[in-house]
Amino acid sequence: MTADQLQAIITAGLACDHCALEGDGRHWYATIVSPEFEGKRLVQRQRLVYATLGNRMQTDEVHALSMKTFSPTEWAAQSA
Question: InterPro entries attached here (predicted)?
Fold first, then answer.
């Protein structure tokens, strides 16, 4: 799987203001900014992202996904 393919899957299932991916085709690092993260705890945010992947984690299409998740407000504060 390519970064573009993975990004397309995530952004199709989750409204994203920003989604950046780096990886080697199996191990991925993502930075995701979504209004859907507003007011949610880290584990809830991760579940939202994993839900977009469906069974791709179980079938090993995506072996590992590390992520930083931000609401738009948090992202704006990071950039300031």
Answer: BolA, BolA-like_sf, BolA/IbaG_stress_morph_reg
Per-residue pLDDT of the chain (80 residues; tens, 9 = 90+): 899 999 999 999 999 999 999 999 889 999 999 999 999 999 999 999 999 999 888 888 888 999 999 999 999 998 66
In this structure, what are the phi and psi dihedrals at residue 77, rounded to the nearest 5 degrees?
A: -65, -35
Among candidates 28, 24, 47, which has minimal Cα distance to 37? 47
Q: What is the DSSP secondary-structure string of 17-62?
A: SEEEEEESSSEEEEEEE-GGGTT--HHHHHHHHHHHHTTTTTTTSS
Task: Give the C-alpha separation, 59 to 52, whole Å.
Answer: 14
